[in-house]
Amino acid sequence: MGCWVLSGYLTFSWFGQRDPRFAVYWFPPLVYFAVGLITRMFRVGPMRVAMRAAAALLIVILVIPAWRYQRPYIGGYKEAAARIVKGYDSGIILFDGPVSGNFVFFVRALDPGRRFVTLRKVLYADDIRPGPGSEETLHSKEEVSEALRQYGVRFAVVSQKLAIRFDSQRILRE
Hints:
Elements: H1 2-13, H2 27-39, H3 45-68, H4 77-87, E1 91-96, H5 100-110, E2 116-119, E3 124-125, E4 135-136, H6 141-151, E5 153-158, H7 167-173
Parallel strand pairs: 1-2, 1-5
Antiparallel strand pairs: 3-4
């Protein structure tokens, strides 16, 4: 078991990215050790029955809310891509919305001839998580207009429910 913990430590110490999310790989061995120590006390008959009942109750308590939980859903990408791909012969599409990869997927799936190109990072470059890694590339109405002309953008697909974080997004929607 010590090898399990040590291998996780050695593997992730060589990464250039030190992020708290990598701690998730430490949970299995730590939980295994904690549960192992606790379960040693429950080898007696009545305690074993009590632990099985507690485990069943815990499962029910966790499963019911999980079953009722409404997961967020993003839709409309296929319809938007189909409207452009089937209505026109070619063009450059500027996309501004959440999960841009979904839109790109449908454009490529519906356009096997690759007649359309999708631009996603003209207005701003965004890291996976909003923060210091995000940078706005266009700042004024003139810059947005010039970029649309320079790149030859024929279509703009924008999400109506997207939280506006940059002025260039607001300008594009206007």
